[in-house]
Amino acid sequence: MTLRKSLIVLDVIIIALAIVVVFSLMAGRNSKKHYYQNAQEAYFKAEKAAASWDIGSDPGKLYELSNLYRLVFDDYPDSRWADDAIYRLASKIDPSEEEAIILYRRLIKDYPDSEYIDKSLYTIGMGNYSKGLFDAAIAEFGEVITNYQSSELAEKAFFNVAMCRYGLRKWDQATLEFQDFEARYPQSDLVDDARTYRGIIEINKGEFDSGIEIFENVLNEFPRSDSSDDAQFNLASAYFEQDSYDKAIEELERLMTEYPESEFMEEAQIMIGSSYEEQDKDEEAIAALQKALMDYPDGQYASKAETYVAYIYHKLEDIARAVEAYQKVADNTKYDYDSRKNAAYRIGELYELQEEYDKAIEAYTKLIDRFPKPTSKPEHPADKIDKGYILGLQQKTPVAPPQAAAST
Fold first, then answer.
1. How far apart are the C-alpha atoms of 254 and 256, rounded to whole Å?
2. Cα dihedral 348, 350, 351, 354 sign
3. How would you label 352-380 residue by residue, b for 16+ Cβ within 10 Å and e otherwise?
4. What is the pLDDT of residues 15-59, one digit of tens each?
5. Distance from C-alpha of 186 to C-alpha of 262, rounded to nearest angstrom
């Protein structure tokens, strides 16, 4: 082969290699382009489903949605949408559930520069808080405070650390942290909440005067804040705990007048009844409790109010009305099991105390038949009623004397 031919062959080889390189680069770019394009399409598909599906009423939809988001961060972990997909999926799950925590942990570990790190840490903290794992929650909130001071969640994290101390009943630490929160965030919307909790802590410590002073300051400085009714209710409760029942009633009535939408309305009405009963103003107490039952027939404290009415009738020795009130509780399937079983037991107890053993036996027999499971309260007397107990009552039942033979 001549030199000229050799050079020609070499040029052809070089050109061929160049073409291969160019095509390889183009293929790489196209592959990379398709990678991100596919990732984007997968993410938008998940987002579209999240916006249109009602996962709250259909748990199966959450499973399907999970698969759509997982396709993004499992198949395209290097795409710009991977951390978005993890966060969006995690946010659809209750933060107290282990699956949500695992997802947030994965985001924190795999995408440390993500914009969602502070939100993930905070949400894990809230999940632990809701489960009563206060020390674990403090660790998460503390990381937000330390490493993400400019985050909008730092303020809430600081407040929630104090709330965790409150949950742990570490009163002195909680008080100091609530005070530190007020000093650091004096313009925060949570300042009134911090002060209200400080007042509650004082009451829990038995420091009623200082607690009352704090509540009054909250009401004076924040008369229409979100926690004003909390302060008002706890102010009334402080007077109740001190046996200052007239003052308690006054503050409870103020609550009902000034904060008619308060979540404490039902409880306030029952506490008014209790305040009257503590003063032996039983008719006023019954009227207040019955008003609560009329206003809140399906309320959280309805069974307690109706049981209280029965107790007062018993106290007044009006056995017929006491039995009637207890029977209403026992028969109301909307009430909790413990309240119903307790009411059924009290009926038998009332008759037994009156030495009406036949009626007591009948009531206790119904108790055993209708409420065979024990209550959640250890050593509740209702759980001691059994066939042996009824047999003992039968032995107390007087036997009718034989009738005299008819004379002839």
1. 5
2. positive
3. beeeebebbbebbeebbeebeeebeeeee
4. 655 555 545 545 445 466 688 899 899 999 999 988 888 877 777
5. 26
